[in-house]
Task: inverse folding
């Protein structure tokens, strides 16, 4: 790999991403503010199931907007009216009995101090969870092999998920992902409590996180390896779910910079503001983010659009670094989605996977199995998954999502998981060390293809630098979805910072307090 | 010789009836478990039965692969199928048909109406993410999809359909308490009949897991889709109803 070319690609990603970062730094969202209140300890919901953080932020917004941040008006009201705690204040505010204002002078100083202390406690709890994880990993141990084996469970019922997750771990999974209920990404609140009903997945709630983590702690001790837990910090409540993940010691979170924009039609500006805050929390919590580049290849052609994956990985890397995430927490995504009928499809897959590996040598890359060309012919699908596993072994991927031969047929059966894990184990056992031997010649097909894709990525990044990233998203550059900056859901929840915007969480996470 | 009308499965010899099945039983692996697998296969109509593979998974389940000869025969003349009354098209065929026969993008407005907050159905059909391995309607270049999401009041849906120049309106209803899905659908179809003339009313389509596909007329809609419907089914129907070269009257 030409080092100068790689450096150029990174410089372009910084240039393309910086305007979006500037935009994110000068705005807040209802969900960022709600996440801040969650860190300050406000939880629970009213009798209709609307979380108190929503009720309180809505009340503040009605009086003074959120352009100053809710911390100042909320903690000012708390100090002035002598409420015992945020919950009492939220309840009173919900009944319309509190009038919020932006404090000035000494009152502002006091509100800042109170807010910083309150939110500081939440961040201290996040820190404590991180120390706890480090301690458990040191005591119990990591999985003996790389890639870590990543399996999905999702029944809709957290009490059904738990035994399934424990069984999956016993069968060999190192990472358990609990898929969310369809449509949660479009809810502008986080449901409360343990949930037993979901659609093709289980709701992400603080209590569900806590229950599953506790169960997997038990299983980790039983198995002698720390089982990591994954969920989704995405959708309209991305920052809040990140906060709940940090408070409940989740270990990985799906957190792509553009997925919600492209695939859920969430407003781009809302997404970038929410994303920055959520990544700051992930960084604080030591949570590995997983990015979603695999999704582009399910909509666009995996050969033609290979360079868009590289571009998105570079952008995700820049946004993540900017938010404080180090390389070892960057689970950048990519996928085995080339049509198997294409000549040399396997060599192309190898080239693309190797390119990602070489571009991001210290990141735990997440390697995603075939879905688009899984047809219902489970026998052929099993072979395809074997080849997918082989690429994973040859190119030293960090996290391997286990492919199911019944993809697109049924949600995985017990036997599907068992067969899929046998497939992974066979490949890893047979040639897990192949990455040592696999150095394709510089003038060969694979290295040439990797250079071509990198070249195309650089061209695209140059165009994005010229036109602007928001414009590029607007015209359908990624995943062929056109998402204009003023369209999509959630834009009405964004406000520009006013002079004196104050968010104690950001201050502390950015080392300013 | 004409093709046989009475058929059995084919392994490697005509008439051998050979099939292969795999399943899991909730028992640990031992001789009794294999016997149970053989007995199950025998009850499924296989004779003789060969349990060729058995593997315990965890402590309480065993996976089996079984081969055997199926005793059953099928008379092709007695096979009844419900034929779809429109052809299932590929994405490209849908796009080509719309381009050719409509000459502009076909506009689809989708929503969950009433108090129904379950957008799972409408999202599965509309969002690019799709369902069952198929991309949603947004993926089709020649369709313009406006998905209004959850809890859309009927008057808002009608107004939006007017504003967007909707060719078709897609409504998803999951909640069925006290027949809410039926009431909501009737309210919706009545509102559209009031707001539009019979010639320019958009095509009305409802979907949800508990609908009876035969009730379209009764509910005042053009088509009902039930459980298992994929975006491709809906796109193909849209072409059939709105953009096929043989134009059919709607409603």
Result:
């Amino acid at each position: 790999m030409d080092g100068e070319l790689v450096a150029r690609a990174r410089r372009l990603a910084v240039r393309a991403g910086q305007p979006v970062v500037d935009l994110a730094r000068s705005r807040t969202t209802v969900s960022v503010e709600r996440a801040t209140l969650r860190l300050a300890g406000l939880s629970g919901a009213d009798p209709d199931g609307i979380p108190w953080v929503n009720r309180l932020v809505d009340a503040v917004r009605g009086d003074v907007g959120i352009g100053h941040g809710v911390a100042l008006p909320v903690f000012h009201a708390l100090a002035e009216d002598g409420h015992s705690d945020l919950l009492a204040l939220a309840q009173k505010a919900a009944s319309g009995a509190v009038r919020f204002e932006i404090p000035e002078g000494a009152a502002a100083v006091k509100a800042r101090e109170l807010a910083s202390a309150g939110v500081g406690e939440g961040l201290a709890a996040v820190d404590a969870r991180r120390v706890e994880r480090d301690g458990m990993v040191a005591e119990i141990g990591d999985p003996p092999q790389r890639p870590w084996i990543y399996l999905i469970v999702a029944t809709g019922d957290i009490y059904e998920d738990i035994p399934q997750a424990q069984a999956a771990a016993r069968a060999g999974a190192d990472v358990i992902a609990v898929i969310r209920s369809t449509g949660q990404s479009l809810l502008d609140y986080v449901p409360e409590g343990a949930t037993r009903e979901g659609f093709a997945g289980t709701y992400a709630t603080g209590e569900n996180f806590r229950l599953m983590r506790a169960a997997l702690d038990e299983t980790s001790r039983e198995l002698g390896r720390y089982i990591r837990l994954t969920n989704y910090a995405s959708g309209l409540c991305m920052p809040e779910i990140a906060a709940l993940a940090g408070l409940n010691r989740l270990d990985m979170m799906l957190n792509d910079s553009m997925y919600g924009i492209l695939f859920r039609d969430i407003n781009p500006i809302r997404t970038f503001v929410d994303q920055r805050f959520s990544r700051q929390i992930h960084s604080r919590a030591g949570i590995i983010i997983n990015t979603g580049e695999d999704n582009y290849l399910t909509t666009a052609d995996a050969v033609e659009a290979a360079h868009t994956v590289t571009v998105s990985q570079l952008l995700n890397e820049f946004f993540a670094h900017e938010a404080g995430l180090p390389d070892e927490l960057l689970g950048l995504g990519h996928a085995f989605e080339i049509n198997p009928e294409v000549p040399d499809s396997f060599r192309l897959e190898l080239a693309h996977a190797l390119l990602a590996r070489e571009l991001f040598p210290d990141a735990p890359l997440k390697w995603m199995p075939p879905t688009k060309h899984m047809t219902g012919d489970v026998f052929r699908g099993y072979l395809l998954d074997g080849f997918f596993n082989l690429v994973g072994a040859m190119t030293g991927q960090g996290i391997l999502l286990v492919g199911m031969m019944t993809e697109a047929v049924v949600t995985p059966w017990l036997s599907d998981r068992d067969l899929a894990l046998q497939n992974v184990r066979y490949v890893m056992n047979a040639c897990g060390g192949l990455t040592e031997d696999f150095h394709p010649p510089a003038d060969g097909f694979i290295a040439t293809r990797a250079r071509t894709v990198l070249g195309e990525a650089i061209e695209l990044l140059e165009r994005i630098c010229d036109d602007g990233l928001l414009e590029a998203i607007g015209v359908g550059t990624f995943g062929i979805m056109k998402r204009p900056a003023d369209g999509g859901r959630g834009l009405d929840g964004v406000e520009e910072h006013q002079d004196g915007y104050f968010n104690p969480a950001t201050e502390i996470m950015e080392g300013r307090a | 010789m004409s093709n046989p009308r009475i058929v059995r499965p084919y392994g490697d010899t005509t008439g051998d009836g050979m099939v292969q099945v795999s399943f899991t039983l909730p028992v640990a692996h031992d001789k009794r478990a294999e016997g149970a697998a053989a007995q199950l296969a025998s009850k499924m109509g296989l004779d003789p039965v060969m349990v060729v593979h058995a593997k315990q998974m965890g402590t309480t389940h065993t996976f089996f692969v079984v081969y055997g000869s199926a005793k059953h025969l099928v008379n092709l003349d007695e096979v009844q199928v419900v034929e779809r009354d429109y052809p299932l098209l590929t994405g490209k065929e849908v796009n080509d048909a719309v381009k050719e026969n409509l000459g502009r993008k076909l506009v689809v407005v989708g929503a969950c109406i009433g108090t129904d907050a379950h957008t799972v159905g409408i999202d599965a059909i509309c969002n690019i993410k799709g369902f069952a391995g198929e991309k949603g309607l947004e993926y089709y270049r020649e369709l313009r999809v406006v998905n209004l999401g959850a809890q859309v009041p009927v008057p808002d849906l009608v107004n939006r359909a007017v504003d967007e120049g909707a060719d078709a309106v897609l409504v998803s209803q999951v909640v069925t308490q006290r027949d809410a899905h039926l009431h909501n659908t009737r309210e919706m179809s009545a509102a559209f009949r009031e707001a539009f003339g019979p010639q320019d009313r958009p095509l009305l389509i409802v979907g949800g897991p508990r609908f009876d596909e035969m009730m379209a007329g009764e509910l005042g809609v053009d088509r009902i889709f039930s459980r298992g419907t994929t975006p491709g089914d809906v796109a193909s129907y849209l072409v059939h109803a709105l953009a096929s070269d043989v134009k059919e009257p709607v409603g």
Remarks:
- Chain B has two domains: 6-76, 91-242.
